[in-house]
Each structure stands twice: as structure tokens, then as C-alpha cells.
Amino acid sequence: MHDQAENLRRLLQQKDRPEAKVIAVVSGKGGVGKSNVCLNFAIGLAEMGKKVLIIDLDIGMANVNILMGLNPTYHLIDLLENERNIWELIEKGPAGISYISGGTAFDTFVEMNEMRLHKFFSQLELIGREFDYVFLDMGAGVTKESLEFIMAANEVFVVTTPEPTAMTDAYSMIKYIFLKEDKLIYLIVNRADSEQEAKRTIKSFKQVTLSFLSKELVELGFIPNDPVVSRGLKHKFHLSYWINMPKQVLL
């Protein structure tokens, strides 16, 4: 599986075309706003004229399409278990971004075994030339399989909040990544109540990582806590969303 990740990375860095940068967006625990951060980064790049693809790799519990209020026709499970190809999975979102949904509310758990990983990487090679940026929106936590996707990325964004549990789990994620490979890791603090709190969180996180792992994190910045984000999502996620969802997903 690691060889497949290496092959994918080499493909995306071919010198005969502009480099497609692959960014894995991760968090130690759920509920820290990782997918919101990923989506807004993608939209910002698209508004700058870049071609951007988000792949939601939280298969079966994906939420990027929910944040956009969209119901995709196909999901990653259709690629992994059925005969759909990756071009059929790509949907359009706001600002012209492209995305592939991981799917929500499936009645079966999809295990990313070696055969499925090989199929996924082979399909991803087919679209490697079409985008400037590919965001991998990873599920919370870390598994052997998810590490393979992270290792295939050029850079890693780690999203945390100032809460102690979120910081502890984010540190564990960073430790796992560094044990696997010396990658460039950026730190984003989300939902900070103040600039002072954000700076304290970033400073302490970088000090601990340097002291115990002998690794430097890159400070990407912080995002203030904004209750409007939560209210906006609740307003969008109402009964009409359920009504428009395909029945085979709900049953």
C-alpha cells in the first residue's frame, strides 16, 4: 500500500505539467470543524482561479456535501464496490470547486483493504492532470489505511481547537504521521475565543512537538469562533434536505 502512495505522489509531481498539490486535511478527533476548514480553503483557491477537487475520505460518514447542502448522485462506495469510474463521481460545488462524496448513512461499512486502495489510486491517476489542488478530507483519527492517503499528500493540515481533548488527539495524530514520514505539517487552530487564546494554543503546541518529537510545525493561522457558522448550517440542514436525499440512502 505504501508503494501505491509513492506512485501516486510521483505521478502528481510529473515535470511535464504544472504540479498538482495534494493536501491532506486531518484532525485527531471529530467536531473540530475540519471539513469546514477544508471546504473554505478550496472555495478560496477556486475564487483565485485554481482548479480544486475535494475528496471526502470519511466513507459512510462524510459531510462535505452536507455543508454545501448538496446530494451527489454517486459516492466513493460506487467506485470501490460497483462499476462506476472516478469521472462519474465528480460533482460541482460552490465557486466551481469539484468534489467526490464519501457518502452518508450507508448500511454497510466499507473497509479500505489493499485491493480497494489499489483501485482508488489507479482511478485517481486518471484525473491527476486536471486539477491544481486536491484536498483529501480525512476522517477523524488515524488508521493504517488513512495513513497511506496522508503519506501520498504533499502537505498536511492539522486542524484542532483550543480544547484539551482536541489538542491531545491532534498531537497523537501528528506523532503517528512523523513516525511514518518526515512530512511538512501545518497547524490550524479553529474556533478560538480570542487571538490571545489562539496564540497560546499554537505556541504550546509547537513547543511540545519540538520538545518531544524534535519536529517543527508550521503555523498556518487561526480561525475565530463564529456562532454564525453553526446557525447557518442548522438553517441549511432542514427537512427539505432529508426529503431530497435518495431513498436508498435513508432505508
Automatic annotation (TrEMBL):
Judging by the UniProt lineage, the source's domain of life is: Bacteria
Residue ranges annotated as coiled coil are none
One Pfam family linked to the record = ParA
Q: What is any one GO biological process for this UniProt entry?
A: negative regulation of cell division
Annotated Gene Ontology cellular component terms: cytoplasmic side of plasma membrane; cytosol
A Gene Ontology MF term for this entry? ATP binding
Q: Which InterPro entries match?
A: FlhG (IPR033875), MinD_FleN (IPR025501), P-loop_NTPase (IPR027417), ParA/MinD_ATPase (IPR050625), YlxH/NBP35 (IPR033756)
UniProt keyword annotations, A-Z:
ATP-binding, Nucleotide-binding
Database matches in CDD domains: FlhG-like (cd02038)
Listed name of the protein: Flagellum site-determining protein YlxH
Organism ancestry: Bacteria, Bacillati, Bacillota, Bacilli, Bacillales
Record gene name: ylxH_1
